Every structure is written in structure tokens, then in C-alpha cells.
Amino acid sequence: MTTLDGDTPELLTLGTATLYEASGLDCFLDAAFRPAWEGAQVVGRAVPVSAQIGDNLALHHGIEAAGPGDVLVVDAGGAPFGYWGEVMAVAAQARGIRGLVIDGGVRDTQQLALLGFPAFSTAISIRGTVKQWPGTVGLPISLRGRVVRHGDIIVADRDGIVALPAVEYDRVLDASRARSAKEVSFMDRLRSGETTLDVYDFRRLGSPIRAEVNP
């Protein structure tokens, strides 16, 4: 199992955009997933959960099944119900669960922020849920076309969310470090007056048809 404790600060510093671009993979989640509170960010191993629309019983089973270093990643059909709130966040934190990503709604966002529990959702909703279907826990799920498997590495910040296959993790981390170092050198060149056309060698792609803008 991939150990992330030592890498977590570096992954958050690199950020989801760099990790995605360096990966060469279609590993990003849909842009509809947004942090439930400003400043939320999380790194952890995915525990996939499938819930029925308007039913959060599966999430309670997910809390029991997950443990330290895990992130619950939930397919709730994108429905705007309040599947998760303060009580469940407290229960999750007691088990060492690092955060939540859900295609559905959460509530108690102020309390989640005060707890420091990172939640990323496609809706904020106070609409109540039932508890009838226990769902699935640990089986692969599809979140708006992106398959997430148990043990995938989840990194989420204000820019977006990536789900990195565990077998690709070391390669992606090395590639992201290299990309970040390269971008530092690019920034230095830009600050010295070079243009992005030259820094990125875009002139080879052709020139626009344009009027004289500096006569």
C-alpha cells in the first residue's frame, strides 16, 4: 500500500494542475466537484463508495470500512441531497479518514471548516436522506465518466481533483517534480523579459494574421 504521510505536503505544494499535466493521464475529476469550504485540500488513498440517490446509509458503512490516510470517494448520482454533515465528519476524523469527495451534496459547511475536514462535492444541500440501501464499499465506481478504484491516490485542492492510479504514483510524482523545476526556470526567463512564445517555443507553430498593433 502506498504510504503518503511524507509526500502529502509536497503533493499539495505541487498542486493538482501540475500533477495532472505531468501525469499524461486522464486522471482529473469533473470540474463540477468543488471544495465545500475555502481552503479545503486533501491527499489520501481512495475508498470508493456507491450510494443510492437520496440514501446515505452506504456512507456510514464507508466510515466503518475506511481508516487512517483514506479519502471516501462517493458516487451518489450527483443528486443534491445532504449526504454528509458535521456528525459524520467527526466520526470520520476519529478513524483517521482524511476527507470526502462526493458526487452529491454536503451540508454543515461552516462546521466542516471549523473541524478542518476537507469535503469536495457537486452540491451544497440541506435536503434530507433516507437509510435503506447499504450500497457498495471498496468496489470501483465511476464519477462522471472517471473510474476510481480502491487505493487510487486522491489529491484535491481549489483547482480540482486528480485520482492517480497507485501503480503510476511514483512515476507521476517524479514527473511532477521535474515539471515544477522546469517551470521555475521558465518564470525566471519571463521575469527577465522573454515572451511565452519564446520560452515555450510556440513560434514554430506559426504566426497569426494581424494588424500592426504598435505603429
From TrEMBL:
<dbReference type="GO" id="GO:0046872">
    <property type="term" value="F:metal ion binding"/>
</dbReference>
<comment type="function">
    <text>Catalyzes the aldol cleavage of 4-hydroxy-4-methyl-2-oxoglutarate (HMG) into 2 molecules of pyruvate. Also contains a secondary oxaloacetate (OAA) decarboxylase activity due to the common pyruvate enolate transition state formed following C-C bond cleavage in the retro-aldol and decarboxylation reactions.</text>
</comment>
<feature type="binding site">
    <location>
        <position position="108"/>
    </location>
    <ligand>
        <name>Mg(2+)</name>
    </ligand>
</feature>
<keyword id="KW-0479">Metal-binding</keyword>
<dbReference type="InterPro" id="IPR005493">
    <property type="entry name" value="RraA/RraA-like"/>
</dbReference>
<dbReference type="InterPro" id="IPR036704">
    <property type="entry name" value="RraA/RraA-like_sf"/>
</dbReference>
<comment type="subunit">
    <text>Homotrimer.</text>
</comment>
<dbReference type="GO" id="GO:0008168">
    <property type="term" value="F:methyltransferase activity"/>
</dbReference>
<keyword id="KW-0489">Methyltransferase</keyword>
<dbReference type="GO" id="GO:0032259">
    <property type="term" value="P:methylation"/>
</dbReference>
<dbReference type="Pfam" id="PF03737">
    <property type="entry name" value="RraA-like"/>
</dbReference>
<keyword id="KW-0460">Magnesium</keyword>
<feature type="binding site">
    <location>
        <position position="107"/>
    </location>
    <ligand>
        <name>substrate</name>
    </ligand>
</feature>
<comment type="similarity">
    <text>Belongs to the class II aldolase/RraA-like family.</text>
</comment>
<protein>
    <recommendedName>
        <fullName>Putative 4-hydroxy-4-methyl-2-oxoglutarate aldolase</fullName>
        <ecNumber>4.1.1.112</ecNumber>
        <ecNumber>4.1.3.17</ecNumber>
    </recommendedName>
</protein>
<dbReference type="GO" id="GO:0008948">
    <property type="term" value="F:oxaloacetate decarboxylase activity"/>
</dbReference>
<keyword id="KW-0808">Transferase</keyword>
<feature type="binding site">
    <location>
        <begin position="85"/>
        <end position="88"/>
    </location>
    <ligand>
        <name>substrate</name>
    </ligand>
</feature>
<dbReference type="GO" id="GO:0047443">
    <property type="term" value="F:4-hydroxy-4-methyl-2-oxoglutarate aldolase activity"/>
</dbReference>
